[in-house]
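Run folding on both entries below.
>entry_1
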Amino acid sequence: MAALRSVAVLLSAASILIVVAAAAANAAPAPATAPAPPKAPPPSAAELLHNDPAYIAREHRLEAMFGNARDRDPTGQVAREHAQALAERRACADKACLDSWFRRREAALKQYVEN
């Protein structure tokens, strides 16, 4: 009888260990992976004009085109248009706006240089 009790206690203890181990395995949260740091926001148009070598070079070419067009325009229209265009560029907030502005301005200045 005592041996039977010992076996029952051992079985009971073993089943408790199994249940506890299974519960611990199910309850243990998976190791949390750290969330990826947020992406840095894209640079603003002003930052691109100041820091990006491609935009700096494009600005220099545009200024040369403006100088040539201004020299050929006795009415002052080119200077007025360029001042207005620069105000529009200051309103640009991103790369797409800046690229569009450069394309439009280069096309506008080419008409004066090609004539």
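>entry_2
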Amino acid sequence: MDSQPQEQATRIAREQAYRRGWQQGMAEATIIIFQLLKQGYPREKLEQLFDIYQDEYVSVWRHDGDLTQMEPFPAFDIEQLEAFLATHPGYGRE
């Protein structure tokens, strides 16, 4: 029995899922950025909050999450990120 067509179908399904997730994440990030800019957040602070979000939430979810099931993408909780930044002043600045 030839397993190549099944392997190719699996790769295609994974790539489709990856691209859907990437597109959804990018769309959500864009909405969040514009909402925060409208609220008057300075660009530098937004960069810090997004660095925290990426480093402390998304990266952990991506690498340590349960890969045997679909888990929701970590919420961009502005209050939680602000609290983290308050305890880590200068985060992401060199």
